[in-house]
Amino acid sequence: MLKHLVALTCLSGLMLGAIQAQTPSPKRVTIRVDLTQTQVPLKPIWAWFGYDEPNYTYMKDGKKLLAELAKLSPVPVYVRAHSLLVTGDGTAAPKWGSTNAYTEDAQGNPVYNWTIVDRIFDTYIERGMKPIAQIGFMPEAMSTHPQPYRHQWSPGTSYNEIFTGWAYPPKDYDKWAELVYQWVTHSVKRYGRKEVESWYWELWNEPDIPYWKGTTEEYIKLYDYSADAVKRALPTARMGGPEVTGPGSPKAALFLKTFLDHIVSGKNYVTGRVGAPLDFITFHAKGAPKLVDGVVRMDMGKQLRDIDKGFDIIASYPTLKGLPIIIGESDPEGCAACSEDFHPQNAYRNGTMYPTYTAASFARKFDLAASRGVNLLGAVTWAFEFENQPWFRGFRDLATNGVDKPVLNVFRMFGMMTGKRATVDQQGLAYDYRRVRDESIRAEPDINALAALDTKQAAIMVWNYHDDNRLDSASRVSVQVRGIPAKAVQLHHYRVDQTHSNSFEVWKTMGSPQQPTAQQLNQLEKAGQLDELTPPTQLLITNGAATLDFVLPRQGVSLLKMTWK
Fold first, then answer.
1. Where are the bilayer-spanning segments (predicted)?
2. pLDDT at 25
3. 260 in the same domain as 318
4. Pick from 118, 151, 331, 426: most CB atoms within 10 A?
């Protein structure tokens, strides 16, 4: 039994504003962390982001947010964007983007223009970021059904309106392959071989739904031509796919299996030999929120079942099981641009539910990968920003008008978790990954932790999450840590809740202004940063153990970071 050596208790001044009615529940939740029991390295699977609108990349707020994403991570952040080969003038709009990389002259000869693509990738490279270079979508001059091409979708209109001429197969697969070859060749010349070798090249997005208007076999043919072109231009390039939707769907699962069967034993459309090159495997996973009695209810279980099924399918291929897996979109639901004003079930996005869901779900992704024995490399959060939109409109984004939302602060917390994963004793805790996968979080709240140990520090992320977005009673949490390899540590306690690291609540207290003053904007930007619950504390450690006691509100996240010399 651990001796009580140090207690950090924060019981006053914590419950304000929207959680004023919360009272700590009488039952204390005890979480035991053993730093002497470390597992595999805690991979930064969170350092991956993506979005539909590539032209936001180099706009004012886009560049600002990318700089913040790069800054929060100790490793290069990977970025995935759609529409990098779409025809158009570069005008940005929700679920639309273009680069005009490929057009044809009057005689049908290719005309390559990398100006906008370079502007996008330059923005990443300048910040030390890396692209997941998505090969898609179909240029207008190459599409088998080019008209209509540019869609005019906006939030509130039918999602099906976005699937226009860019979603079709090419008229000429050789021209397509040459486009891909020219793009990779150009990238090597511009950025250098070593840099491009660190990227990931992939084909298309969600080809099992109308993002791809061809057949499964036509996608496989396109993959063979694309992979061959990438490897001809740079034999050491990393090529993957197929970026299907959640494998919990029978249609997506069948598509993924058919694709992997081809990789292993199919006849290659280009070479005529068996199989095709595959360096990493991708699929998507989404939850499904809904309104229940006027309250948002999340469904984390659905997202985890998608992930688990994808892992299960990949693990069934002995020669592919060890390949890196990138969950190309891994989110609470499926449409970042479907704003709260038209989709009230998305009201979780501005406040503290989104960051708490993120903390709890990412921890279970590690567990699912370990249980299936697969190599999870990254999980892309499909959220960025929407330029020049109303404040806190309810998009699934990380910032609004240049002000960071609460969810971004959980990624700042993740950025401080380095080293090896340390053991968190699940005994007595209500949820493990199996129960969340099978039932979601519908009974008692999920109060749990993820821990990491590095050379001179330990970090413990603790969350208090429930699928129902009700700010019920807060909980007393006791984190008992053993194996601290120091006699004294400095403790930082970071917090995301209603009154910390929360620009949304500050904005509401201002009267929800759509044109904040300069003073208000400065206040909002400050509120968007990661805040500490208490000032840093020096703790004396005896026998390598400490007990940290605090109150954690519902839909709140704490990061306890201990450093030593």
1. none
2. 57
3. yes
4. 331
Q: How far is CA 1 from the centre of its chain?
A: 39
Q: Within this chain, do residues 128 and 259 fall inside the same structural domain, yes or no?
A: yes
Find, among 46, 13, 18, the residue nearest to 559 by Cα: 46
What are the residue ranges in the chain where pLDDT is below 50?
Answer: 1-21
Closest CA to 68 of 135, 116, 27, 127: 127
CA distances (Å), 410 to each of 20, 390, 470, in order?
23, 23, 20
Q: Report how many domains make up the chain.
A: 2
On whether residue 320 sits in a domain, the answer given is yes
CA distances from 256 to 306, 311, 369, 502 (A): 12, 11, 18, 40
**Dist. CA 14–CA 17, nearest whole Å:** 10
**pLDDT digits over 418-437, tens only?**
999 999 987 777 899 999 99
On whether both 229 and 267 belong to a single domain, the answer is: yes
Q: In terms of domains, do 173 and 313 share one?
A: yes
Question: Distance between CA atoms of 425 and 416, rounded to whole angstroms?
Answer: 21
State the residue range of the domain holding 381. 48-415
Q: Is 385 a catalytic residue?
A: no
Q: What is the CATH number of the domain that holds 427?
A: 2.60.40.1500
Q: Which residue in the list 53, 202, 206, 340 is annotated as catalytic?
A: 206
Q: Which of 376, 393, 415 is the last residue of a domain?
A: 415
Look at residue 1 and tell me if it is in a domain: no
**Distance between CA atoms of residues 17 and 116, nearest Å:** 46
Q: Which of 415, 438, 464 lies at the terminal end of a domain, its last residue?
A: 415
Give the pLDDT score at 14: 28
Q: Tell me the C-alpha distance between 99 and 87, whole Å.
A: 6
Residue in this structure with the two tokens 């919990």, named with its chain if needed: 248
Regarding whether 363 and 445 lie in a shared domain, the answer is no
Task: Compute the distance between CA of residue 273 and CA of residue 275 in angstroms, rounded to an integer.
Answer: 6
Assigned domain for 354 exists: yes
How many alpha carbons lie under 13 Å from residue 268 in its C-beta half-sphere? 16
Q: Which helix (H) or strand (E) holds 370?
A: helix 353-372
pLDDT digits (tens, 9 = 90+) for 359-414: 999 999 999 999 999 999 999 999 999 999 999 999 999 999 999 999 999 999 99
CA atoms of 475 and 271, how far apart (whole Å): 62
Give the helix/strand (H/E) hosting 269.
none
501 contacts: CB under 8 Å, gap ≥ 6: 406, 409, 494, 495, 527, 528, 529, 530, 531
Name the residue type at position 498: Q
DSSP conformation letters of 400-441? ETTEE-HHHHHHHHHHT--SEEEEEE-TT-S--HHHHHHH-S
H or E element at residue 363: helix 353-372
Query: Which CATH number does the domain housing residue 404 bear?
Result: 3.20.20.80
- CA dist., res. 384 & res. 397, Å (int): 5
